[in-house]
Structures are given as C-alpha cells and as structure tokens.
Amino acid sequence: LSLAAEIHILTCNLPLSYIAALRTQAPNIVVHRATDAGELGEEARKTILAALVWGMPPHRLHLLPKLALVQGMGAGVDRLLTPGTVPEHVPIARISNELQGVAMTEYVLLHVLRQHRSLQAAFDRHQRREWGGPDSGYVGTRVIGVMGLGEIGRRVCRSAAAIGFQVRGLSRTQKAVEGVQCFDPGSFDRFLEGCQHLVCLLPLTPETGGILNSRTFDRLAMGAFLINAGRGAHLVEADLIPALDSGRLGGATLDVLVDEPPPAGHTFWSDSRILLTGHSAAASYLAAEDVAPQIAGNLGRVAAGLVPRDLVDRRKGY
Ligand code: GLV
C-alpha cells in the first residue's frame, strides 16, 4: 500500500500525539482541522479522503466528495451512526486493538475484586485502627454476568473465569466461550438470575439503550454490584439510586455517563455507593503508537481504493 502520496484527513480534535504517531507510518498526511466541513475552502474539501473522529464527528461530511473513510478512534461508534452524520456510501471503521481488551479486563477485574473483597470496608477499618476483616466468601460461589461478548467481553470473561468466578456471558447472537455459560437475548432473565456482579460492555444500539434498568436489577442477587463500561445511555440513571436504596444493588462503578463530565450537582458525585471513573477504563494505556498502524493501514487501503479493515456494520450498529 502506498502511504508515500499525500493523504488529506479531516479531524476536529485528534491530539497531536496521534498525528505524530500517524506521521511515522504515513509521512505525507495533511491534516485539516474543522468541526464543520463547510468551514473548509473549496480546494481542501475536494482533497479530503478520510475523517478521524473521537467524540463528536465533524458536521456536514456530505460536503466532502472524495471522503472514503470515517475512522472512529475508539471501540464504540454510536455517535457516528446517528442518521445524517456519515453519508450512507462512506464506510465507517473503528479501533479494534488487543490492548483495549487488556485495559478493559484490568478495569473490570479491579472493580469486581474490589467489590468482592469489600476493599472500601478495609480502608475504613484501617482508618479506625481496627485489625482483621470479614470473610469475603469463596470466589467460586460468585457469579459475574458480562453483557457483550465481542473481543473485549470474551477476554474479560476468560480472565474472570481463570480467577475462579462463575462467569456468564450475554450476546446478541449465541456464542460459545470456553469456561463461560453463554446466553442470547431470548434467555436474558436466566442470564441475570442471581448474578452478583453485572458488567456492561455492550455497544450502544437501539436495542441496548436503557438495558440497565430496575427490571434488570430486580433479577440480580440482592446486593449485586454494577459495572458500566459501555456507554452512559445503557443505564436508566433514574433507576440507580432507588436500586441502591432498596439494597437490590450494593454499589455501582460507572465509567460512562450520558453527560460527560456530569454537572457538579449530579447526585452520582455525592453518593458513596457510586464510583465514577471518568471514561478512563480502556484509555489507560492505549497509546497513539498502538493505534497508528491500524489507522495508517486503513488510510493506505482507502487511498488505494480498497475496503478498510474493522468495518462497522451499520445495520447491527457496531
Ligand atoms: C471508548 O469509549 C471507546 O469506545 O473506545
């Protein structure tokens, strides 16, 4: 693939570290920055081949006649799939990177183990100079339900099973993962029944929005813990505090919210049963250098008239 020719890309907000990493692979990229393609001059519009998007995509992408790729810079592409955002004929690709799975696994295990071993109570006892701690119970009796069995979800499941947890996985189409009891949406209630930890790693689609609601919580074990590292809109926010108050949920760790960051007065900030981790779960060490080869590869492919890799299926929504 020829990455020697000039390749014009449009981005709103791609950090400079990413541009620098991209240049090591594709030295002749020309970067245009705009939040609206209409802000660009006529000439620039005609040259742009790809848009690189983190967060909100540039407006009016239909003004770019040569646009051949919209490359999402994360695993989730929900915002790119809003109708009218990316012209129908333009392929959308996402980042699919082993390190995302590694980072997400670390995040989920950290919080599941923190919940299982009552880490907060240990901090509190230490403060009181109190020795000893409660028996947290054998890990093999604890059931984790993981929603989403893509590459990330499968890695999370395998790692949790390796520690000894009983692991269930839920996916849109029935999957088979060794050591994991797999469910499809038709058996959603059986998947939920008695889970002590519920982990959401789903893509946000019309089917999955609001899936973390009081009906879902009511099927979990009493005092279950919630971890949402999918998208904020998976959670019906109004259902969370009542579930915590009733004891149905014992705590919640939320990496994502509908409004990021939430306003200072948001109740979730001031509730000690909730931990907000600021959309950092898989960004922790997914460095520019790790994603640059994948993006450069896709730029080279579309420059050569080939189909990009890690394509999003618009009908499925991920
Ligand atoms: C992060 O939220 C991502 O989609 O990668």
Secondary structure blueprint with pairings:
Layout: E1 7-11, H1 16-25, E2 29-33, H2 42-47, E3 48-53, E4 69-72, E5 92-93, H3 98-116, H4 119-127, E6 143-147, H5 151-163, E7 166-170, E8 181-183, H6 188-192, E9 197-200, H7 214-217, E10 224-228, H8 237-245, E11 249-254, E12 274-276, H9 288-303
Parallel strand pairs: 1-2, 1-3, 3-4, 4-5, 6-7, 6-9, 7-8, 9-10, 10-11, 11-12
Helix pairs in contact: 1-9, 3-5
The protein binds glyoxylic acid.
The site of glyoxylic acid has 4 residues, from loops.
Number of helices: 9
What's the overall geometry?
elongated
* Main beta-sheet strand count, sense and barrel state: 7 strands, parallel
- The class by helix and strand makeup works out as alpha/beta
Spatial strand sequence of the major β-sheet: 8-7-6-9-10-11-12
Helical residue percent?
A: 25-40%
Q: Which whole number gives the mean pLDDT?
A: 95
Distance between the termini: 27 Å
Question: Helix and strand succession?
Answer: EHEHEEEHHEHEEHEHEHEEH
Secondary structure: number of strands: 12
Cofactors and ligands = glyoxylic acid
Radius of gyration: 22 Å
State which percent range the strand residues make up: 15-25%
Instruction: Return residue spans where pLDDT drops below 50 for at least 5 consecutive residues.
Output: none
Plain-language structure description:
This protein has 318 residues and is of the alpha/beta class. The protein has 9 helices and 12 strands. It has helices at 16-25, 42-47, 98-116, 119-127, 151-163, 188-192, 214-217, 237-245, 288-303, and strands at residues 7-11, 29-33, 48-53, 69-72, 92-93, 143-147, 166-170, 181-183, 197-200, 224-228, 249-254, 274-276. The strands form 2 sheets. It has a 7-stranded parallel sheet. Strands 2-1-3-4-5 form a 5-stranded parallel sheet. Helix 3 crosses helix 5. It is elongated. The two termini are 27 Å apart. 37% of the residues are buried. Bound molecules: glyoxylic acid. Residues 74-76, 282 line the site of glyoxylic acid.
